[in-house]
Structures are given as C-alpha cells and as structure tokens.
Fold this sequence. Notes:
This protein has helices at residues 3-10, 31-39, 73-91, 115-128, 148-156, 171-177, 183-195, 214-225, 258-274, 291-297, 338-346, 360-375, 380-385, 393-400, 402-406, 427-432; strands at 46-53, 55-56, 68-69, 99-107, 130-141, 161-167, 200-207, 231-236, 277-280, 284-287, 302-304, 307-309, 315-319, 324-327, 330-334, 352-357, 377-379, 410-413, 416-419. By secondary structure, it is an alpha/beta fold. It has 2 domains: 1-13 and 359-442, Arc Repressor Mutant, subunit A (Orthogonal Bundle); 21-319, Aldolase class I (TIM Barrel, Alpha-Beta Barrel), CATH 3.20.20. Strands 9-10-8-7-6-5-4-1-13 form a 9-stranded mixed beta sheet, sandwiched between helices. It has a 3-stranded antiparallel beta sheet with strand order 14-15-16, covered by helices on one side. The chain has a 3-stranded antiparallel beta sheet with strand order 17-19-18. Strand 4, helix 4 and strand 5 (130-141) form a beta-alpha-beta unit. The structure holds S-adenosylmethionine and iron/sulfur cluster.
Amino acid sequence: MDATLSRYAQETAPRYTSYPPATQFHDGIGETQYRRWLEDVPRNGTLSLYIHIPFCKQLCWYCGCHTTVANKDERIGHYVEALLTEIRRVGETAARHARVTHMHFGGGTPNILSPDVFRTIVAEIQRNFRFDANAEKAVELDPRYLSDAHIAAFADCGVTRASLGVQDVSPDVQALINRHQPLEIVQSAVERLREAGIGAINLDLMYGLPGQTVKHVRRSAEAAVALRPDRLTVFGYAHVPWFKKNQRAIDETRLPDAGERMAQAAAAAESLQGAGYTAIGIDHFARADDPLARAKRSGRLRRNFQGYTLDSATTLIGFGASSIGCFAGGYVQNDPHLGRYNSAVQNGRLPIVRGVATSAEDKLRSAVIERLMCDFAVDVLAVQKNFDFDGQVLADGLLRLKPLQTDGLVEVRDGIVNVTAQGQPFVRNIAACFDAYSQACETRHSSVV
Ligand SMILES: C[S@@+](CC[C@H](N)C(=O)[O-])C[C@H]1O[C@@H](n2cnc3c(N)ncnc32)[C@H](O)[C@@H]1O
Ligand code: SF4
C-alpha cells in the first residue's frame, strides 16, 4: 500500500452508526429527559426495539461487544427479571401506541437464554407493544450453543432472521482467538434454522484477526458462500485493548498490518462479489435479490446501530444493559454495568446513564454522513434543502475534504461528493470531514481499515 493510503488507514474515526457518535454521549442526559422523549413518541409512529443479552458461555479474545461470561444461572435470572421490569415500565409510556416494525435481540449471545426464558421475554414485549403484521424479528446467535429447542422457541416467537458468528473457519486462527468452531456446527445450525422456517440467514466474518492471511479470509468467505446466506458482514477486527480487557490475550505480534488488512478486506469482497453478492457500504454483502441490495440500488439504505439496514422506524428503544435508544430529540444509553443496571431498575428507575440531545445542525450533519456511509456519495446542497437549518456548516466540510480530493479519495463538483473506488475503504475518514466533533475524539476509536 502506498504511504498516503497507509496514513489514512491508520487514522481513527467513528463507525458512524450514529451521529453524534456515542463518544459524545454525556451524563447530562438521564431518566427525566428519556421519559419526556418516550412521551413524545408519535402515536402513529414506528418503533424499532433492541434487546441486549450481555452474556456468553466463554469470551472470544477479539470481542468488542458489551458482554461477560455467565458462570451462574442465577446471574442471568436476575438480569432477565430486570429486563422484564424495564419492558413493562417503558410500556407504560406513550411509546406503547407506536407500531413495532423491527425487533432485534443482540449480544452477547441471546441463545444463552433457555428457550422458555426467550419465550417469556417476547411474550412480555408483545403484551406491552403493538406489532406490525410484517415486523422483522431478528436474533444474533452463537452456532456453538444452538439446540433444537432454541430453534423451536425462535420459530414459535415468529423470528424471521438469524445472524450467526463465523469469523474464520480455520482451526489455527480459531486457536489464536479462543473460538473453537468446526464448520459443521455452522452448517448444521443453518440447516436446522431453515427447516424450522427461519429462512433469512446472516453470517458474520472477520478480517484482521491474529494469524489471519488473505488465504484464510478467502477460505472463510468461500465456506460461508457455500451455505448460501442471504447476507454477510465482514468486520475488520477493531483492536482496542485499552478499552476491552479480553483483547489483551491477543498476541499483537500476530496481528496483520494496515496493508495486509486492506488486502484481506479486498480478498473477502472479491470472493463474495465473485459469488454474486452485492457489496453494501463498508462491511455488508447481500444476495442481489435481497431487499438490502434493492434498497442500495434505489438509495433507500439506512445505517443504525446494527449496521446497514432497511429499518426506517422513527424511534429506537433499547432494553437491557448498555442498550441505546434513538428519538427525534436525541440519543440515550442504559447503564452498561450489570449490577448498576439491575439495581436501578429494581429501584423503580429507567436506567439511563448518558445520552445526547441532537441539535438542528447535528441532524443535518447526520443526514450527510448517513448518505456518504450508505451511498458513497452525497449531494450536500440537496440534503441541506430538506433541513430547517440555514448555515454554512457544510462549507467547512467541503473545505476539509480538499486534501482527500488531492489524494484521489473523493471527487467534488457543485456540492456533490462522490467517493472514488480508491476512496471507498476510507469513507469513514471522508465522513469525518462533516463531523463537527471529529477532532475531539480521535483516540477513542479504532483504525478505519
Ligand atoms: C454479538 S456477536 C454475534 C453473535 C454471537 N455472540 C457469536 O459471536 O456468534 C456480533 C459480531 O460482532 C463481531 N465482532 C465482535 N467483536 C469485534 C471486534 N473487536 N471487531 C470487529 N468485529 C467484532 C463479530 O463478527 C461477531 O460475530
Ligand atoms: S463474539 Fe459473540 S460469542 Fe464471542 S465473546 Fe463476543 S458476543 Fe460472545
């Protein structure tokens, strides 16, 4: 990789799953503000619900998620009680009148819950919220611990989509990340889910892991394609050991450098596109006939905390420790600490610890950044017309783009920004030019490629 691109690859930037990014959340936003935003949810609005299950059987060393090892069933039991209470408490607010179009169980590992506990949580949600007949119900799953009884419970609860963690199929890489997972386990999980009628399958792959080479990445992509998933994600390993203690077990001497990471990302993209998948944004792939690929072609792609999505709900409510909610007025986040989350809920509170109110300027910048991340292009002036915010705020963004333009990452004409093929892996650097906070938070993010 040439020196200029290498410099961009090593810069840090948010993943822009929200704007302002979560690093801007502060403790000035709490329960009182959250309750106001919940009461302001329009009666005819649409809702997306996220439920976080922060437990795993064991920790993968690379993991960057909010999760912990559940060594006692009792611990999960206390958490589930708090979760049910939180669901009921939010269900008492005006938000209950809106229509749920999307429900997502993430983690951690939602299938660490017993099938009956999963049914109980879904039943509580359905008692408290109104579901659209076509609502998508998605669950993140660890294929190593997926029983037939789990699958039956998911099918009974109307789950339509399952995302399975694969990462890398080679035993030598799996040993370096503490995730032993023979491919047959994934194959069996996919087959059993399909037999039960859960037909929409996503597989997660990773590059940039210790010991990984282009050959490993290609082998994993080919093995994943053979399972005919509807969608795949290919995440670059985000190494943030100062923030995630479990990552300190990773042998840093075995981590691929920036050039190798770029080659691995390109190899994954080539294998998946060669097999007929459409590239979506920075890290998603979908079958050409998948609604996500169609949305990309028609400019209707969205980006939220789950990555690229069709979810166009106007409000996101997060349940469980660390979950984030998104409202017309701003973002809120629940306490990520399990003990504090449980006791806040048991003490009659909604466990918000931070958030941020979004200004008119934030909303405008957010729209520009979302289009860049989704379409690799944005008509800045056209976006500005849709916002009740008059200002030259975007002019500074265009100015900050100049060096990236000189380096061939973007082309800019009459306020229309087009990311070049060379610039696409660096779209986070490009989006950062429209981010008013980007210089303030550099060291807290991972490198962009
Ligand atoms: C909640 S897990 C998926 C479900 C289940 N826990 C599993 O691992 O099979 C979400 C996904 O995030 C990705 N991921 C986790 N830590 C990451 C990191 N540090 N950098 C990039 N991607 C990561 C992995 O691809 C993982 O499959
Ligand atoms: S990758 Fe999945 S299974 Fe592994 S520790 Fe993270 S959440 Fe748990």
